[in-house]
Amino acid sequence: MSFLITGGASQVGSVIAQLLKDAHQDVIIGSRSGRVPEGFQSTKLDWLDASTFQNPFKLPGVEIKSVYLLLPYGYVDPSENIKQFIDIAVRNGVKRFVLLSGSGHEKDADFGISKVWRYLDERKLDYIALRPTWFIDNFLEFHGKDIREHDEFKSVMPNAKIPLISVADIGQVALNVFLNDKNERTDQRIIGPELVTYDQVADILTEILGRRITHKVVTPEELSDHYSSSLGWPLQYAQFVVQAEQYVNAGSEERWWGNPENINGQETVREWVERNKSNFAPGSKAGN
User: Fold this and answer.
1) What is the pTM of this model?
2) Which of 107, 123, 153, 176 gives 143 a disulfide partner, CB atoms 3.0 to 4.6 angstroms apart?
3) Is the predicted pLDDT of residue 158 greater than 90, yes or no?
């Protein structure tokens, strides 16, 4: 029995794949680009190309029982295609789906993730939507190049207090969800172990990296343009992310703090930076 991880070498997907492999489970990576973690079997899977949806189920000797669903970055909504994939997966014997959502996403919203979440629910499938707060790891994915080359990172969040969660902690929750005989919930919010501001993150980076790192607050327009140019995102998607940051600055992530239904991660920002400090060294190619 195998686990299919969609999204190629994504942050959370890569961690889940490795944890499953370490637990002696068979893992298949579905990837549009062919970029997959080293040492894993892969297959072509593109949410915008329905002709690839049968590929994972044609692999010789592979019987997929569970699927991790990741919607791609960008502004195209692939939810109708992913619904089609879910139908194909069920017909091919898949029993459980794990969907990566977000702490503030709701099942009844009009986002692509919510449409997929609703479909899993309407079909009464065995599924769970994981709802993590803001990732610590985005300091590498979004800001790594700026920190390495300019000793700064930009945001529109001067006031936000955020329970930042590490991808490692999210992956551990996902592993448990995949391997449990039965999950009692259909969604689970996952938050970090502490509330921190971006100024505090800058101070932690400064102390551990041994050079002054600055958090620079910019306008939404400046940040949208910066994300679009430096990360290669479509401008409309960059604007969507910046709008989410503005919500975070207004308290959209802090509000989950102390909710007894949360799963609380273990890794602090300081521990995460210590573990990843080499990736912030000038000349490193990690992240963006």
Assistant:
1) 0.94
2) 153
3) yes
